[in-house]
From TrEMBL:
Keywords: Membrane, Transmembrane, Transmembrane helix. Residues 3-74 form the Ig-like domain. InterPro entries: Ig-like_dom. It comes from the Eukaryota. Coiled coil: none annotated. The lineage of its organism: Eukaryota, Metazoa, Spiralia, Lophotrochozoa, Mollusca. This is Ig-like domain-containing protein. Residues 151-174 are annotated as: Disordered. It comes from Elysia chlorotica (Eastern emerald elysia). The chain crosses the membrane at residues 109-130.
Length: 174
């Protein structure tokens, strides 16, 4: 059984210090082996496939350069038709900076933690302000009710003389 690719050809992608070559649909029987060649010339054989991909984990201090991945010259590779052999080769050129980038460096971690702390403090402050407003509104309402009740029971003194209203006398008809 010849090996087959999921995509039209092999490709290499990089995520920090991990390079991925793939995607192999079936390594065939006998299975083909992908060979990695790294900038300093070492050839690394890879028989492990993760979701159809061959992964190469590099050290952070690797130099930039060309990384390549292709099928080795084993008898299993002979199952690949000659016109498809070029589809089983991939290269990726990297620079030193791309290998040294680390999204979890100390500066970013500190910035993320500070942002989260500020967000939590802001939420707590908003909750407390909301509670204080509610408590203040309730106490003002209670004060107004008590004031209203006391004004009904004890009306305020007008401060002036009270004028007696004339009493009506019932008239008798003669």
């Amino acid at each position: 059984e010849p090996p087959s690719l999921k995509s039209s050809k092999l490709s290499i992608s990089q995520n920090l210090s991990t390079f991925t070559c793939g995607t192999v649909d079936s390594p065939g029987i006998p299975p083909v082996t992908l060979v990695w060649e790294v900038p300093y010339g070492t050839v690394i054989l890879s028989k492990t496939y993760v979701h159809g991909n061959s992964e190469l984990l590099t050290m952070r201090n690797f130099s930039g350069g060309v990384y390549s991945c292709e099928v080795d010259d084993s008898p299993a590779a002979e199952c690949i038709p000659p016109y498809e052999r070029s589809l089983w080769k991939a290269q990726l050129r990297t620079d030193v900076q791309s290998l040294e980038k680390d999204p979890y460096d100390l500066t970013r971690i500190v910035a993320i933690v500070c942002g989260v702390v500020l967000l939590v403090v802001h939420i707590i402050a908003m909750v407390e302000i909301s509670r204080n407003k509610k408590t203040k509104a309730q106490s003002m309402e209670l004060e107004m009710r008590q004031s209203w009740r006391s004004s009904i029971i004890h009306p305020p003194d007008s401060g002036g003389d009270v004028v007696d209203q004339p009493k009506r006398v019932a008239s008798t008809a003669l």
